[in-house]
Structure formats: C-alpha cells, structure tokens
Amino acid sequence: MLKNYDCNMDIGIEIPLRTIKPSKKKSSLRKRLLPYLLVSPYLIFVSVFVAFPVLFCFFLTFHKWNIISPMTFIGTDNYSRLLHDRLFWKAIGNTLKFLLLHIPLQLMISLSLAYLLNQQLRAASFFRSSFFMPVIVSGVVVTILWQQLLGYDSGLINRVLMHMGVRKIGWLVDPGTAIYSIAVMATWKNLGLYVILFLVGLQTVPTQYYEAAKMEGANRWQQFYHITLPMINPTIFMVVILSTIGGFSLFIEPYIMTGGGPLNTTLSAVLYIYKQAFQYYNMGYSATLGFFYALMIMTVVILQKKFIEKEV
Amino acid sequence: MKKRFSIKRILMYAALILAALTFIYPFVWMIGASLAPQHEVGKMTLWPDHPGFENFKLMIEKIPIGRSLINSLLVAFFTTSLVMITGSTVGYALARMNFKGRQLIFYVIVFTMSLPFQVTLIPNYITMVNLHLVDSFFALVIPFAVSAFAVLMFRQAFQGLPQALIDAARLDGCTELGIIFRVLWPNIKPTLVTVAILSFIGSWNEVLWPLIVIRNEQLMTMPQLVTLFATGGRADSMLGVKIAAAVLLALPVMIAFLFFQKHFIQSMASTGLKD
Q1: Is residue B89 included in any domain, yes or no?
Q2: Do residues B133 and B212 share a domain?
C-alpha cells in the first residue's frame, strides 16, 4: 500500500493542487478553496434536490397547474380545498389506524424476540437471519407474497381457517380489516430490523444490575419491568420514531394490494398525493398535500421526541 | 431446579422456531409456487409435484424482465459508486478540514435527513421534466447520488483515524483526493461495506421514484416492472408468473444476504443507531 501513491486520480473532479513549488499566496488560496470543492457535491445536491424543491413546493401550493398549460395563481384555494378534502383526511385517518396497530405490535413482538435471542440460546444467528430476510427484500416482493396469503377465496390463511372449520375472513376485501391486514404485513416486513436494534439495546444493560436485583429477590418479570425496560428506553423511542416515519410513507403496499380500496379504507396519504399528481395531474394541489403532510410528519415526530424525552 | 430450567429453554426454542417458521415458510412457499405449473399454484404444499420453469419462460415472453434486471443493476451500481465518492469527499472535508461554514453545513445535513421526502417529491419530478431527464437513467441516479447518511458515516469514520496517516501521505506529495481514496479508504473498510450495502439495497428496492420518472418499459427497473405487471391486470390470470416475477426480484438480494449476513445486519442496524 505504501509503495506507490499515484495520486492523479481521475474521477471527474479536477483539483489542481499538485503543481511544482507553487507560490505561497496561490497555494494558500487553493488551500482555502479546497474544502469547498470537496463539499461542493453536497452543496449542489442540497440546492437542487432539497432547498429548491422545498421553496418550489411552497410556491406551487398557491397555484393550479397540470404541467402542460401555464400555471395560474389561485391564492390559498389549494389550502381551503385541502381542509375540506374528505378523502385526504380519510387517508390520514387510515395512516393513523395503520400506526395504531403497527407500532404496538412491532414493539411487543420485536422486543420479545430480542429478549429470547438474548438468552444465550443456540442457533441465535440463524433465528436472527431468518427474521431479517423480509427486511432486505423489496416491499414489492413482500406485498405480492402476502397477497397470496391474504386472498379471500384461495389465500393460504383462509384455507387453513376453512380446514379448522372457521369462517373465512376478508383480510383485504373487508373495509373494516384491510388496513389492519396491511399493518400486520408491514410489521412482518420490518420486524427483523427492530429485533436487531432491541438486541443491541439489551446487550448494553450491565449484568450487575440483574445480579443485584436477584439478590434483592426480584423475579424475572420484575427485573424486566424495573431494569430492562428503563434501560432500553432509547431503543423503544427509536423504534417508535422509525416505525412512525415508515408508516407515514406507506405507499407500495396499498398500491399493489388494494389500489387504496375497498371504499378507500387503505388509501394512504402518499398514495393519495401520488394519485393527485400522476392520475389527475393536479400538481399544485398535490404539492399542497405533500407540503402539509411533511409538516404534519415533522410535528408528530418532534412531539414524540419531546414526550419520550420527558418520560425518560 | 435444573429440570425447570430446561423446560423453560424448550419453551423458548419453541417460540423462536415458531417465529422463524412464519418468516421462512412464506419464502419457501413462494419459490415452490414459482416453479409450479398453473393448476398447482394455489396449493398449500411447499413443493409442487411437477416443478418446472414454465412460469419463468412465460414471464420472459411477457415482460422485458432480463432488461430490467440489467437496468436495476446499472442504476444501483452507479448510485452506490457516486454515493461513496461524494460521501467521502464531503465527509472528509467535514471531519478533517477547517473552513468557514463547516458547522453550518453539518447542521444542514442533519436537518435534511429528517425532512420528509413527501415535500420534495412533486418538485423533483418537475425538475426532471424541465431538465428533460424523464425516461433516462440520469433521473434514477442523480437525485440519489449524494446521501446525507453516507456523508455522516464517512465523517465519523474519518474522524476516528490518526492525523499521522494524513500527514505522512501529504509529505509524500499526495493530493487530498489521493489521501481520501488511496490512503484513508483502506482503513475504513467496515464503513465502506456499510455504505455500499445500504445504498445498493436502497437503490435496488426503490420503486416510488421510478414509477414517477420512467414510462418507457425498456428503461424500467425491476421492482417497477414487477409492480406494474402485478397491478396492471396482465398477471391476473397467471398467478404463477406473478410469483415468479417476485422470486426473481428477491433472488439477487437474498443470495447476497446469504453470503454477507453479518455485514447486512450490521449495516441495516446502523441506520437506526446513528441518531
């Protein structure tokens, strides 16, 4: 490694740093410019794909535009439309219903599995990997797979139920259950990641604490409740935030499985924003929804942070 | 005492095995179903009586799946390379250089990481339209060429290296780019692996953005093509073909996972732990 630094790397960025004996002034100017050159990819990226879009999004919220004909300024019409848009609020409600089942389920199952894996059992890495499989494959795969599991007539789960003499359940066709079925599926998909996060959290709890508690005569449950839970609070917090953000981005699952139906009960906010833009070509209104929704997500996450920090 | 202990262990194993089955069974079933002839697809049995590649053959006839596989690989490869290069230069400057605005840039990066993508989605699509990049690979790569997360990972990795390493390379007349890629990179292999895995998987699995910017079937990525095939009604009468498409989409990632399990798990876990 040491013998030959051929440093004229050609990666498309020209930095003329290595001239022979540069004059002192020149070299110091270069030295001062160099860091900015190095960070320039980020600066360009953030201006083009973050700062400009946010401003442009805000600008669009005051306009009506179908991309083809010129924009027209419509003041705050988009906002009042949003406030009275039953479908949008239904989509938000659907997302909240999704989170209401998804987060507790995710926390309970992944914490229990992590707790089991932390008991120095054999084959722990095999179990860990099997839980992790759905995390890495595309949501498209998971969705197509679960479509077969949850189908009404030929779905595997309903067939098992029929064998056991239980009535079939309309997992994806019943307006009352569809969003919860998707929430269970999403839990299955992400569980492995949270098991790992909890496992890391559990391993940071010093064993002396448990020993001390045992001396005091605390049983397993008491140890779990009084030592483990408080110690892994940061992990719980992280899992809640990550699954909230994930839940708010729900898109491909309803897109493939239900198209938002039945009766719009699985219409997620992102799916609705997508439809407004790319099915009805209401760019201005779609941008308004996106802008509002992003603000909402940030508010929820900040509130969660505040709330949980208080609890800790 | 000892006996109670072992019963407890057995119960623990039972719970874990049950859980593992609910994760493995669907995947095995999926692979079996993809190999099953049409009339056997709906069965619950794990493996078809007459396995064959009929579904895969049909799929290749119906949709340009091979093409999409190459597209996805190219897009993921270029995205990952760019993320690693830009992440390194920016991370290096933030970690190892003093300049005005360094702290500000750092805060901007942290802030943009928490900015929900919903706000930039529509404007970014319009940018692509205006730059005439719709229906080109650029539209799939450029918006992902810089990753705030990668920058922070590299920044942290470079901060942990001794200054002597950099000084020695400078004395040898190495440029800053040479220092980053020739001298420092070999010393931060775990970070390289993590960033590479995360951006490759992220790019490979991305589907919302391709759905927006790619209309030409020849340019579609694999998850996009499979999604449109699965929802477009073309696959309704051919359940086996749909499942075969899902299998083909999952296979590259699953094979990679089997070989690099530890790296995958560590990398994915680090996304959560970096807060």
Answers
A1: yes
A2: yes
A116 touching B (Cβ < 8 Å): yes
Size of interface A-B (CB pairs under 8 A): 268
Phi then psi for residue B5, to 5 deg, are: -55, -45
The 3-state secondary structure of A70-115, one letter per residue: CCEECCCHHHHHHHCCHHHHHHHHHHHHHHHHHHHHHHHHHHHHHH
Find out whether B58 and A181 touch, Cβ atoms under 8 Å. no
Q: Å from A236 to nearest chain B CA? A: 11
Domain for residue B157, yes or no? yes
**CA nearest to B230 within chain A:** A256
Cα B56 to Cα B149: distance, rounded to the nearest angstrom: 38
Task: Check whether residue B34 and residue B143 sit in a common domain.
Answer: no
Question: Residue A177 gets which letter from DSSP?
Answer: T
Residue A102 predicted with pLDDT over 90 = yes
User: What domain range is B36 assigned to?
Assistant: 2-52
A152 contact B CB<8A: no
Q: Is A88 part of the contact surface with chain B (CB cutoff 8 Å)?
A: no
**Å from A126 to nearest chain B CA?**
9
> ipTM, 2 decimals?
0.88
Q: What angle separates helix B118-130 from helix A52-60, to the nearest 10 degrees?
A: 100
What's the CA gap between B3 and B80, in Å, rounded? 53
B58 touches chain A (CB under 8 A): no
CB contact under 8 A, A136 and B201: yes
Structure tokens that stand for B109 in this block:
């990066």
Name residues whose C-beta falls within 8 Å of residue B131's C-beta, 6 or more positions apart in sequence: none
| Residue B256, in any domain of the structure | yes
By Cβ distance, the residue of B26, B93, B105 closest to A149 is B26
Question: Nearest CA to CA, how far is A39 from chain B (Å)?
Answer: 4
Listed by number, the residues of chain A in 179-208 with a beta carbon closer than 8 Å to a beta carbon of chain B are 188, 192-193, 196-197, 200
Q: How confident is the model over A227-239, as pLDDT tens digits?
A: 888 888 888 988 8
CATH number at residue B77: 1.10.3720.10
Chain B: nearest CA to A176, how far in angstroms? 23
Does A121 contact B27 at a Cβ distance shorter than 8 Å?
no
Look at residue B7 and tell me if it is in a domain.
Answer: yes
User: Domain A86-139+177-311 is in which class?
Assistant: mainly alpha
Q: Are A257 and A147 in contact (CB under 8 A)?
A: yes
The predicted model scores a pTM of 0.86
- Convert the pLDDT of each residue in A243-277 to its tens digit: 999 999 999 999 988 888 789 999 999 999 999 99
Domain residue spans in chain A? 35-78, 86-139+177-311
B37 and B153, same domain (yes or no): no
Chain A residues near residue B127 by CB distance under 8 angstroms: 48-49, 52-53
The answer to whether residues B109 and B236 belong to one domain is yes
- Residues of chain A with Cβ-Cβ distance to B105 below 8 Å are 39, 42-43
Does B104 lie in the same domain as B8? no
Considering the domain architecture, whether residues B77 and B194 belong to the same structural domain is answered as yes
